[in-house]
Amino acid sequence: MPTMSAETKSFDLAHVGVSIRVSGPGSLNALATSYDQYARPASTPDRLAIEVSFDEQHSSPPSNAPYPAFDMRADGDDLLLWRADASGRLSRRADGTVHATFTAHSDVVLEAVVRITLATTLLFDGGLMMHAASAEIDGGAMLFSGPSGAGKSTISDLLAENGDTKLTDELVALRPVDGVWRAFVMPFFGHPRLPFGRVAPVRAVHFISHAEGHHRDRLSSAHSLQGVLRNTVAYAGTRELAAALLANATALVEAVPCFALQFARSPTVGSIVRQPLDEPAVHAPAPDLVVGKVAD
Fold first, then answer.
1. CB-based contacts of 267: which residues, under 8 Å, 6+ apart?
2. Domain extents for the chain?
3. How far is 6 from 24, CA to CA, in rounded Å?
4. SS3 of 285, please?
5. Which pTM value belongs to this model?
6. What is the rounded distance in angstroms from the CA atom of residue 191 to the CA atom of residue 199?
7. May I ask the CATH class of domain 128-282?
8. For residues 200 and 182, is the Cβ–Cβ distance under 8 A?
9. Distance between CA 10 and CA 18 in Å, rounded?
10. CB 87 within 8 A of CB 103
11. Over the stretch 114-134, which tens digit does the pLDDT of each residue have?
């Protein structure tokens, strides 16, 4: 029989106080060591409390979502989430704190649970989790969003070759702080060479696609909103969460310019990214712009 144990760790992730407690034959060591840079005193208040128990015999309902995404449905004001190896419930308490309880086959699921519960909590707090690479240029974060294969990691690597700071490869947490939208580098995936803990004001969002040359068009508010919604990690399975997602995405595109960016694989893409951000919007996105729904 495996040894039963319980562990708790506390983190500050994008100004969200997170505690995660695990019990059973699993360990918080399954989280990447990058999480250690986000540790916070356990005595500080939780905004998000996560509890995960491990049971190899646990059975989840059938899921229509492609693995590793979670399926979801509302249960009153609560959100139920499940996939083949885990299921859970997320509740918002009367005091505003968010509580999530999951049962999983093993600790392999831990980071996925942290990602989706943090993304949901950010919706309650006026923020978003976007599927985007990003780079810091002249003190501001430039975001590059799109589905798998669009070139997110490629463009952030190209900008790093120019001497800019690569912030993220896959996911970035966004929220307004003191009236300014800011990008937070998260510990997810434990990618080496990323500046974990870095925070930068968001300068622009780009929805990207590969091309033979570079071309950038400023998007209208409607197309900007469409792009943000399609590339946000959002389990908006309740009316409250759906309303928060729409309100937060609208606030982002009202405050931050969004562009359709076609780019070639060349470090010279930095020259177009650095162009002034106040160009007029076009009525439609560039023909090759592809934005796809991302669940996890």
1. 158, 159, 161, 162
2. 6-124, 128-282
3. 7
4. coil
5. 0.91
6. 17
7. alpha beta
8. yes
9. 6
10. yes
11. 999 999 999 999 999 999 999
- Least confident piece of the model among 96-110, 187-201, 254-268: 187-201
Would you tell me how many other CB atoms lie within 10 Å of the CB of residue 59? 9
Residue 1 in this model has a pLDDT that exceeds 50: no
Task: Give the three-state DSSP class for 52.
Answer: strand
Region of 123 please: left (phi>0), alpha (psi -120 to 50) or beta. Answer: alpha
Q: Do residues 247 and 290 lie in contact, with contact meaning Cβ atoms separated by under 8 Å?
A: no
Q: How far apart are the C-alpha atoms of 259 and 220, rounded to whole Å?
A: 9
- In sequence order, the 6+-apart residues with CB closer than 8 A to the CB of 137 are 159, 164, 203, 270, 273, 274
Alpha-carbon distances, residue 9 vs 102, 229, 279 (angstroms): 16, 32, 46
Secondary structure tally for the chain: helices H, strands E: 5, 16
Query: Cα(222)–Cα(283) distance, rounded to whole angstroms?
Result: 9
Can you tell me the distance from the alpha carbon of 59 to that of 254, in angstroms, rounded to the nearest whole number?
44
d(CA 270, CA 159): 6
Mean pLDDT of 69-86: 96
State the Cα–Cα distance between residues 131 and 173, nearest whole angstrom: 9
Residue 119, CB half-sphere, CA atoms under 13 Å: how many? 25
